[in-house]
Amino acid sequence: MAAAEAAGMGLTDLPGELLELILCSAVLSAADIGRVSCTCRRLREACQARGKVWRERFRRRWPSLLKYYSQTDNVNWLKEYKARHNAGLETQRIVASFSKRFFSEHVPCDGFSDIETLGCPGHFFEDELMSILNMEGRKCLTWKYYAKKILYFLRQQNILKNLKAYLEQPGDQLSFLEGAVLIDQYCNPLSDICLTSVQAQVDEITDKVRKVLRTRNSRHPSLAPKAGEVLIVSDVEFQRQVLDAVNCVLYEQLKYKGNEMDYYNSLNSFIHQVLIRRTGIPISLSVLYLTIARQLGVRLEPVNFPSHFLLRWCQGKEGTDIFDYMYIDAFGKGKQLTVKECEYLIGHHVTEEFYGVVTSKEVLQRMVGNLLNLGKRESTDQSYQLLRDSLDLYLAMYPDNVQHLMLQARLYFHLGIWPEKVLDILQHVQALDPSQHGAVGYLVQHTLEHIDRRKEEVGPEVKHRSDEKHKDICFSIGLIMKHKRYGYNCVIYGWDPACMMGQEWIRNMNVHSLPHGPHQPFYNVLVEDGSCRYAAQVTLEQIEHLHRRFKQISGDQPTIRKESFDRIPDLEFNPIRSKIVRAFFDKRNLRQASDGLADEINFEDFLTIMSYFRPMEMNMDEEQQEHFRKEKLKFLFHMYDSDNDGKITLQEYRKVVEELLSRNPHLEKESARSIADGAMMEAASICVGQMEPDQVYEGITFEDFLKMWQGIDIDTKMHVRFLTMEPIAHCH
Q1: Rounded distance, CA 725 to CA 732, Å?
Q2: Angle (CA) 229 232 236, round 5°
Q3: Exposure check for the chain: N or C terminus, fewer CB within 10 A?
Q4: Is 297:232 a contact under the CB 8 Å cutoff?
Q5: Euclidean distance between CA atoms 642 and 563, whole angstroms
Q6: Rounded distance between C-alpha atoms, residue 593 and residue 374, angstroms
Q7: Following CA atoms 45, 46, 50, 52 in sequence, which dihedral angle do they give, to the nearest 10 degrees?
Q8: What pairs with residue 542 in β-bridges?
């Protein structure tokens, strides 16, 4: 520029490319570009609407939106910039209006009507919502809460449209993988899941299978598919080679396996999580296996076998009965089963109809049915959301299914949301099946009562804790609490001296099973996910002291890193310090993934870890106590199983014992090894029984670990003195 000035050149005298480079500078704003373009013809031409300058301005401001444009498109970037800017303003207006309209109630079913009539492109609206969600730190939490709800609604509506379009296609053209992705997307609408990326990962596995095939048979027909043609391998021996190569890559090289340890985890049903975690349940692993095999020319077929989804492979030209097929267990490392072995797998005889092939829609129905059952297993916020999502999916496929329509109506009624929609559902059920009039009438009556109570609500009653009649109120408004049974974190925003809900709610929520039942203080609490709950005093515990401890360990930072534990002086004298610290960052314990370590943990993660040390509640039923105990033991098991292979090997156990005894000057390393070896032999005798002379005990599985701890009070053996506010703390 200095040389240009010396030569008497102005900005407009510069070559076009150099002028564009200057105008694309990050230091210039869109307003600057607008003003520059008004100065003269030369600069107006440089800043033309379809030119590089406005494209660069758009890219810098909203980089994630460029994927919606092709390189060959003649785009008016100035027009797009204005449209995106206006969409951002409109989005902010709508989010702000949600905060004003619905702060005291659940967003009603017609609350999203403004969004459905937006005048801007949907991807612009979504992009602004993501910008709000990605705001730094804990700013604009209310906006973030409603932005998340709106984004959830928008994406689910689009996915439902895609699902309905998918189901309208001819059955033989439906992709099993695409159906699995649609289910995954609907249940995880805020995750970045798309068919293209999932298909790319499957293609990568298929390429690995081709490499194995090439080493075994360089002339195999699957290695040279013709462009535009559907590959079909008809020779049975060639098909067998493909399946052997698939088994080799999936189960030997990539270590895919059925998730026996955590079978009822919903992540096992989501195809993108199956690819990430390399584990799943029979149906999700079967969809992956079938897709790979078909891409290599082997036409496996899905079999809706009871309790265990299978694939079938015809070893002749055309199967005439069930004995003409081999049945492939993708959950069991691709093992090929006969009809008799299939019955051994589930422990009982089944009729021939269960060996038949099923359609893509029926496969989706079973996948959604699995999610429905998972949603029914527990009564937590996550399970309710899973139940709502899976019901939406099921009714999108079978809109007139009375059983599931009634379940949806009961769920909304139980959650106290969308009473008008409950009435619509019940009216539809009555029209479909008049014999349901008893159950329908009962729900209609109580739903109308709920609507009437809501209309009669007046201003809030003023109550004072200082009143003698309110002496039983233990917690005040503003305290941070944790629910003892369901584990959610919340803040108190109101209270009642006794339960003020109706008898129907009290009965449904099993309040009478609590100590003091409904005759105790109940609190209005705002849960961390933004929802509101009504909780009994006996079910809440204060976690403010935990928050103070977290801030002390983190040095008043929002997260804790491994080095933060250096602030606990006495922890350095604990012989298994490294394992204790590692347990806080183990993604298995954080319930984030099946392996790996987190770089840092936030307060919510800290509470998750501390929950393993919480004593068992007296009011838990047997099933809850057993689940609670297993979670504690799983945490301990993970401390020993350092390589995440699902077994505590002799080497791993030796290392722990050596660390525990390392500060004892009277015990040498060999003595520690002998103690570990003896303990492992005892474990083998407990878990395996009498072993053959040449039999090798590979290690303690989690099932073995449970047997070893049978009859031992875990609460007295597992605790952490981590909550005192003194500068030292001890872990045991």
Answers
A1: 17
A2: 165
A3: N
A4: yes
A5: 20
A6: 18
A7: 170
A8: 481
Q: CA-CA distance, 596 to 610, in Å (whole number)?
A: 19
Per residue in 667-697, pLDDT (tens digit) is: 666 766 777 677 777 776 766 666 565 666 6
Residues whose CB falls within 8 Å of the CB of residue 679, separated by 6 or more in sequence, listed in order? 653, 657
Given strand 522-527, what is the order of strands in its sheet?
Answer: 532-536, 522-527, 489-496, 480-483, 540-542
Distances (CA, A) of 28 to 61, 62, 408: 12, 16, 54
Question: How far apart are alpha carbons 210 and 249 in whole angstroms?
Answer: 10
Q: What angle do CA 120, 125, 129 make, to 5 degrees?
A: 165
Distance CA 659, CA 198 (A): 43
Phi (first) and psi of residue 471, to 5 degrees: -65, -20
75 or 732, which is more confident: 75
DSSP assignment letter at 191: S
Other beta carbons within 10 angstroms of residue 536's beta carbon come to 22
Distances (CA, A) of 452 to 91, 447, 492, 504, 706: 34, 9, 26, 15, 52
Burial status of residue 471 (CB atoms within 10 A of its CB: 0-12, 13-18, 19 or more): exposed
Q: Tell me how far apart the alpha carbons of residues 406 and 427 are, in angstroms, rounded to a whole number.
A: 11
Q: What is the 3-state secondary structure (H, E, C) of 304-347?
A: CCCCCCEEEEECCCCCCCHHHEEEEECCCCCEEECHHHHHHHHC
First-residue to last-residue Cα distance in the chain: 69
Number of H helices, E strands in the chain: 29, 17
Question: Which residues are bridge partners to 301 per DSSP?
Answer: 312
Helix (H, G, I), strand (E, B) or coil at 535: strand
* 207 alpha carbon, distance to own chain's centre: 28
- Return the amino acid letter for 513: S
330 vs 96: CA distance, rounded Å = 49
CB neighbours of residue 563 within 10 Å: 9
Is the torsion defined by CA of 88, 93, 94, 95 positive or negative?
positive
* Helix H or strand E segment including 590: none
CA atoms within 13 A on the CB side of 598: 22
- Give 413-416 contacts, CB < 8 A, sequence gap 24+: 413/443, 413/446, 413/447, 413/450, 414/508, 415/384, 416/106, 416/450, 416/505
- Per-residue burial over 596-627, b if 16 or more Cβ lie within 10 Å, else e, is eebeebebebbbbbbbbbbeeeeeeeeeeeee
Predicted pLDDT at 530: 65
Query: Residue 144: what residue type?
Result: K
* Residue 720, beta-bridge partner list: 731
Contacting residues for 509 by C-beta, under 8 A, at least 6 apart: 501
Contacts of 99 (CB under 8 A, 6+ apart): 142, 143, 146
Residue-wise pLDDT for 341-395, tens only, equals 998 888 888 888 889 899 999 999 999 999 999 888 776 667 788 899 999 999 9
In the predicted structure, residue 4 carries a pLDDT above the cut 60: no
Do 364 and 302 touch, CB atoms closer than 8 A? no
Q: Which amino acid is at 491?
A: V
DSSP 8-state assignment for residue 67: G
Residue 667 near residue 612, CB atoms below 8 Å:
no
Phi and psi for 378 in degrees, rounded to 5? -130, 165
- Asked whether the whole model's pTM tops 0.70, one would answer no
Nearest-angstrom CA–CA distance, 42 and 13:
9
What token pair was written down for 638?
């993970």
Print the SS3 string covering 38-62. Answer: CCCHHHHHHCCCCCHHHHHHHHHHC
